Amino acid sequence: MTEIFWIVVKTAIVFGVVLFHVAYTTYAERKIIGRVQARYGPKEVGPHGLLQPIADFIKLFFKEDIVPQDAYRLIFKISPVIVLAFTMANLTVLPFDKGFILADINLGLLFILASASVAVYGVILAGWSSNSRYSFLGGIRSAAQVLSYEIALGLSLASVVLMAGSLRLSDIVMAQYESRFGMYVIPQIVGFVVFTIAAFAETNRAPFDLPEAETELVAGYLTEYSAFRYALFFLAEYVAMYVMACLAVLCFLGGWTIPRFVSDLIPWLSYVPGTVWFALKVYIFIFLYIWVRATLPRYRFDQLLNMGWKVLIPAGIFNLVITALIRRLT
């Protein structure tokens, strides 16, 4: 019973910290994009607008939950729960520091890829169950997009697994620490670029936010959702961003470690807790998400599929073959 109690406590702490980060990532995103567009962003609710995420939550929580008359009610209601549940499940296998993990399973990387694949079903079901053309098209787009980019994502991570010799995320981090460069982003630069682009598409973020595409689909699969169910989709999107950012840090940027040549050059850096290094790297990747949204226009759907099938997948296969040859010869 004591062990179960501490597992519940650690899970609640991890989920709470992540949800706090999600709330204030929305604030940071609005502030950064506002500055890019020569605006202030939110600044009325609380000092410098710091209470804006809380005000948004209260507003969404108390709004009327509208279910369309012709919708398939049960599936319409559980779709956002499916997306959020399988997205949040990924947090349980992410190591945030040495020994700081809820479930250090042997197939952690495979578990995340599987959970991300299942979460997409919630988006597809949301589009279908709304019984709306806009929503249905958004769901179909999401299915095609994930089918294209999840292959590229898997290929980029397969090269990392080949180098580390393990699917356990903590083993991948330690393999990077023992390697020559201290992180895989240098020898696996092609894989990192493929992963980054695929991660944007996997999380439906600009410039690959075609399942929502306000200009032609109103809000895509979200069109008929309101109030707290809409907030669940919104929450799942930002949690998925953090999952992909953590995955990039763990598989390419050395996780909670810093390269040995850096710590040898500046010895006092080795005293900084690993969680701090991990968080800083994740924040940089999240900033990249926001920066790209503020900078690049949305792709057309045919351009998105062409990039996935004709550029990223061949690049991922090429990188995997080269990695396998090098491993075989060394």
Automatic annotation (TrEMBL):
Keyword annotations: Cell membrane, Membrane, NAD, Quinone, Translocase, Transmembrane, Transmembrane helix, Ubiquinone
Domain of life: Bacteria
Protein name: NADH-quinone oxidoreductase subunit H
Catalytic activity: a quinone + NADH + 5 H(+)(in) = a quinol + NAD(+) + 4 H(+)(out)
Cellular-component GO terms for this entry: plasma membrane
Localisation: Cell membrane; Membrane
UniProt entry tagged with the keyword Kinase: no
Summary of the function given for this chain in its UniProt record: NDH-1 shuttles electrons from NADH, via FMN and iron-sulfur (Fe-S) centers, to quinones in the respiratory chain. The immediate electron acceptor for the enzyme in this species is believed to be ubiquinone. Couples the redox reaction to proton translocation (for every two electrons transferred, four hydrogen ions are translocated across the cytoplasmic membrane), and thus conserves the redox energy in a proton gradient. This subunit may bind ubiquinone.
NCBIfam families for this protein: PRK06076.1-2
Pfam families in the record: NADHdh
